[in-house]
Amino acid sequence: MKIMIVLAMAVLLSGCAGIAPKTNLIEEITPTILLYLKEGENSTVESTMVVPAVKEEKKQLLTVRSKMMKESRYLLTRNYYREIKSGQLHLLFISEELARKGIIDHINTLLLDQEIKTRLYMAVIRGDFVSYLQSQINRQEGIDRFLYKMFRHYEKKGDMTIVDLHHFLVNYYSPYSDPVLPIFTIRQGQLIYAGTALFREDRLVKSIPNEEDYIFQFVHRHQCFHTNIPLPDRNIVLGNVFSTRKIRFADRYEHAIVNLRLRGIVEEYTGDKDLSRPEEVADMIRDLERYLEERIHEHIRDWQKLAIDPAHIGRKTLSPFRQPFSGSEWKRHWRELPVTVRVELELENLGWIKPEKQGPGQRVG
Amino acid sequence: MPLAQTLRMEERLANEGHWPVWLGWIIVNRFQIVYYILFLPHVLIYPYMIWIIPIVAILSHLNLRVLSIWLQTQEARLGQAGFTQLLGGFAVRLLAFVGIGVILMQSSILTLSYLDVVHQTLFPSMSKVTPLILLGLASFYLARLGMISVGNFAILAFVMSFWMVLIYVQFLLPQKAVYEHLFPIFPQNVPHHILSNLLTVWAAFSGPEYLAFAGKRFAATTGLFRWLALGNAATALEYIFFFVITLLFYGAEYLQKIDLPVVQIVRYIELPFFERLEMIMVSNYMILIIFMNALFIHYLYNAVRTVANFVHKPKSALGLTVAAILLVSFMYFFSKYFWVLESEQNRWTTFHLWVSGATYAVIPSFLALTAYLRNKRRADK
Amino acid sequence: MDMHWLTKLLASIQREKKQQIERKQCEAPPLSLEYMKQAFQNIHDAKTIEINNEFIGKITLFYIRSLVDVRQLQEFVIFPLQHASNPSLRKTVSTVELNELNTAEEAEQAALKGSVILHAKNRFWSIILPNSISRAIETSEQESIIYGPKDSFSEQIDQNLTLIRRRLPIRTLKSEEMIVGSMSKTTVILLYIDGLTNPELIRIARAKTAVIEYDTFLDTSHLAHFLEDHIYSVFPQFQQTDRPDAVVAALTSGKVVWLVDNTPFALIGPITFFDLFQSPEDYIHRWLVASFLRGLRFFAFLFAMVLTPLYVALTMHHYQMMPIELLYVLLESRSQIPFNPFWEALFMLLTLEILKEASLRMPSKSGQTLGVVGGIVIGQAAVAAKIASNILIIHVAVMAIASFLIPNYLMTNSSKLIQFGLLILAAWLGMWGITLGLILVLIHLHGLTSLKQPFLSPLVPFYVTDWKDTIVRLPFRWMNQRPAYLNPLKKYKFSKRK
Questions:
Q1: Residues of chain B found within 8 Å of residue A169, distances taken between Cβ atoms
Q2: Which of A108, A206, B62, C254 has its CA 20 to 30 A from that of A68?
Q3: Residues of chain A positioned with their CB less than 8 A from the CB of B188
Q4: Are the Cβ atoms of A24 and C335 closer than 8 angstroms?
């Protein structure tokens, strides 16, 4: 009896207080996966959203122009007859022009929104993404889902730069590293990976093209596996490359040494060296090592000139007992720090089809 | 007396039975982490602040020693009558009156803070009154089972909440953790904010002082200290674990921007059939709040009986209901008038910090000292 | 408040009972032939036989033909009396037991229990010759197992007692007979092992049975309703079984068992929540397999309670929790349905319950057809008519099957009610509501008692050794102690230790 009274009171009281309006009913909302930000005129931002098609609707794109991020999402909702919810937002694309102007304001609102997950894949787009999306939607409706699956697959694979919101922000806030994002470009109606975009704070300052992206991956990751590394200048394609990087400091942090150990096989060689002779192989390896060291050193010099540290070498200065540089001190020190790059290349299999006659010390190919 | 066909509330309130001695560690552990576990890393931020936790844990350990000395005295074992013997009738009633205020404030602030987290994470559009009333109902439903059952419920609260720690273990692995975020772990110069952090962590270890009033519930208090110390150590380990994890995942600078790191970190987990596990985590947490409030309802009832001098009358179901309604209505009015603006909330949270730190520091020592002096006076006579 | 009222009522009932007995004794009519003839007026099968024997004199026999074994009567009583050769009655009918009767009430009761009333030499005697029609020993339909004994109880209490005593031929197995029910006069036998079972449990069991006041008891459940501590709970507080091996296992653990006449089910108490998930098959499989199956049952119980509410919570409040592919499938299917997920789920659950209940009442010839019709056709048709979505049908079907994993049939139905409650909470408050509902169920279980013992032992209060046989089933050799929550007088099962 008592319980009934208490329950009745509870129901009445909560009725007075206002029970939640059911705003998340799944058939009444439109969860969107993809958001594209582009610079508009008069310092506005154009947001484009791919709206999922349900119940014989056509899949479509919605574009709005506004000054602020949240305002744009508000306008997008108003432009469609179902409420647009960002709880399932998985992909955030930013145009290159907007990236050069700075993106942290837009991203901060995303972080504050409790609905949006931090595993949001981000990328910079070079080219006209809206018309690409429009053409894709006409051909295959699930373009946003396919893109999401592509990102997920490459994240697991590990040889492309795939960055989510969380990693971007960790690198942004930390003084010892700078954020990066992948760049995709639109060519002949296809979305193609075009390398890595390097950011200083939240502005895009440089992009590494796809052909040299492996250099960034080597220096950026502690351990990395590449299926193929074509080096056309040296007429060789390395395969199954497993790279390990070690960074040391010498002379009380006056000198940085980047050690790279690469292990792989030769997939294709079109040069004129005879790979069945050990001396020529050693030559070739030395030559490759020099080549790689030069290229990597060049890139690192570029980064130092631009005062960015995308490979987070600064983190390596920290140790349990010492913090030799505070954030700003490291930024100053990094610009002038001499860096030596040492590459050690081990080729496990030369891939050379051996001649039929076997001599001593030769393997059957 | 005819054998009752159902168990009446009076039977349950008549305080038969005891808590087993080892229950102390669960009660200590769950009471200590009840609120602070969610946001403590956000307060501590820097990796070298990690040492504050073991330092304060040792201080808390010593404090628990004093508490267990108090609990072993015969006045503590007598319960209500013991306090009257110790301090005199008037002082007991005065302190009980102060205690009513403390209990109401603590319980309101803790419950409303938890509801804030729920509001932020789960239901931004819902008013906080509905969950408040439901939590109050659940706490009353638990409280009506009697003090002994409420204490035993700690085991269930523990079982339902500790498995969440296992979800976090994956953040120790190299895929998600950046180990350099933990460096430097030893500070090079004296950090600022160290005193305010010490106070916060000390308040984070507070909670066991409420056991000082539950002396007669334990079956025996002679072996109690090692269990209290075990609970304290478990709390310290949990705090360190969560701090390390959030630091590894976020890094000190980013950690400053996130106000509920332990909840936010769960948002990153992606299972094949579920995402956004923080909704389950925050919901599971509610069992600690219900347990705490049920115990507070009983304490409130006892305190009101002391102040109003009804100690000699037997406990009744109506009295407990009144105490529960008092607690819930106080929380409701508090949330309506004093918990609206964010600045107000911050002030109340700071107030809560000071009050819990003070009660934890003062209550065990005060009671133990008074008992010691009384026994000394009696021995001299 | 109202609880005081209940105690007072019970006290007054007891007082009245005592007064009634005293009154009856004062007003009792004297025992005589006229009384017997009058008492059995209008009972067409009440027979009277008069035998004249030169040694003993005139002998009158009263009996009710439907209750008495007429062949035995003829063979052991009538024939010897007709050919008696000495005046001693006892020597003449020495093959049967003669009990002297003093009051009319005793005579009445004896006759109604299947005894023959003998009047000779101005004295009354009763001879117990009950009609032994009974069901043959069959397999249990509720708890059939593949390997293991297949006999089960029948409606005759003596037969049931025989099956138990054969498995426990020890002197310390005590059986106390009690009569409950003012009209049905049902025999209830309280079984326990003296020296093993905690005397407090026996005392509580005895006292609870003695206080029962009702007119008819047709089944063990009716008895259980009066013995329970908590009448408002959905969880059963006693275990009912018709397997003698389950009863013997319970007795040797230190539990108390009630056998009830005219029903094959025995009542076992005290039980815990975890006992409701145990099945005799667990002790037949290998211990790893048995542990896996038991864990599966617990998981299935939780799963069955929570699956549909989870569906409702996710579709109504937490669309962010679903993986993206599932979200799109749900969007497609739900967009064609005119109802809320809550109403859709409620409708499907109710339909399932209707089907389940109907299949119980159906004659077995049409049972299979309707099962197909109900299960497959209605489900498919509902999806095609866009009343329910595919995913919900799968959920409801999986839930229905999972709920049958629980060995205790009463629990299956209890969990259904909880499911409906969780459904409402899920629709109202989403994930938080489901957790709140589960916590309320947990608090409820925490407060339950079975024969005044806590229902959630060995979790609360915590007994370490009991966990060897709760969620997992460890090898027999490791389980050398009896369940600690029963506080048995002999803790160890092996006889070397006390």
A1: 254
A2: A206
A3: 322-323
A4: no
Quote the domain boundaries for residue A331: 214-356
| A15 CB within 8 Å of a chain B CB | no
Give C342's contacts (C-beta < 8 A, 6+ positions apart): C312, C316, C423, C424, C426, C427
Residue with tokens 């509801």, as numbered in its chain: B115
The answer to whether the Cβ–Cβ distance between A14 and B276 falls below 8 Å is no
Please tell me the pTM assigned to this model.
0.89
Summarize chain A as % helix, strand, coil (round to 5): 35, 30, 30
Question: Which of A7, A26, A56 is the best substitution to test chain C (most C C-beta atoms within 10 A)?
Answer: A26
* Distance (Å, whole) CA A239 – CA A227: 5
Q: What's the rounded Cα separation, in Å, for the pair C98 and C75?
A: 15
What DSSP line would sit under A128-157, residue for residue? -HHHHHHHHHHH-TTHHHHHHHHHHHHHHH
- Cβ–Cβ gap B5/C11 under 8 Å: no
List pLDDT tens digits, range C18-60. 877 777 666 667 778 888 888 888 888 888 888 888 888 888 8
A305 shares its domain with A343 = yes
User: Which of A208, A224, A239 is the endpoint of a domain?
Assistant: A208
pLDDT of residue A8: 61
The answer to whether the CB atoms of A10 and B126 lie below 8 A apart is no
Contacts of B118 in chain C (CB under 8 A): 432
In what helix (H) or strand (E) does residue A47 lie, and over which residues does it extend? strand A45-51
- How many inter-chain contacts (A to C, CB under 8 Å) are there? 55
Pick from A1, A11, A27 the residue to mutate for testing the C interface (most C CBs within 10 Å): A27
Q: Tell me whether residue A151 is in a domain.
A: yes
Residue A337 shares a structural domain with residue A315: yes
Q: What is the pLDDT of residues A143-165, one digit of tens each?
A: 888 888 889 888 888 778 899 89
* Closest Cα in chain A, distance from residue C332 (Å): 6
What pLDDT score does C140 carry?
A: 81
Whether residues B4 and C431 touch (CB distance < 8 A) is answered with: no
Mean pLDDT over each residue of chain C, to the nearest integer:
86
Q: Is residue A362 part of a domain?
A: no
For residue C344, give the nearest of C316, C324, C372, C321 by alpha carbon: C316
Structure tokens given for C137: 């020993």
**Does residue A6 surpass a pLDDT of 70?**
no
Show residues of chain A in contact with C340, CB under 8 Å.
25
Output the DSSP codes for B128-152. SHHHHHHHHHHHHHHHTT-HHHHHH
In chain B, whose CA is at the least distance from the CA of A19?
B126
Q: Does C326 lie at the interface with A, CB-CB under 8 angstroms?
A: no
CA C170 to chain centre: 25
ipTM: 0.93
Same domain, A191 and A64: yes
From A161, A185, A208, give the residue that closes a domain: A208
The burial class, CB within 10 Å (0-12 / 13-18 / 19+), for C230 is: middle
- Tens digits of per-residue pLDDT, B340-357? 888 888 899 899 999 999
Is the Cβ pair A26, C330 closer than 8 Å?
yes
Say yes or no for a CB contact (<8 Å) between C443 and B274. Answer: no
- Is position A2 within any domain? no
The percent helix, strand, coil of chain C (3-state, each to 5) is 50, 15, 35
Of A111, A114, A318, the CB nearest to B183: A318
Domain boundaries, chain B: 19-375
Task: Please state the domain count of chain A.
Answer: 2
* Within-domain flag for A13: no
CATH number of B19-375: 1.20.1740.10
Nearest beta carbon to residue C335 from set A31, A33, A54: A54
* CATH code, A287: 3.30.300.210
d(CA C317, CA C340): 12
Indicate the range of A356-360, B130-134, C337-341 predicted with least confidence.
Answer: A356-360
Tell whether A179 and A240 lie within a shared domain.
Answer: no
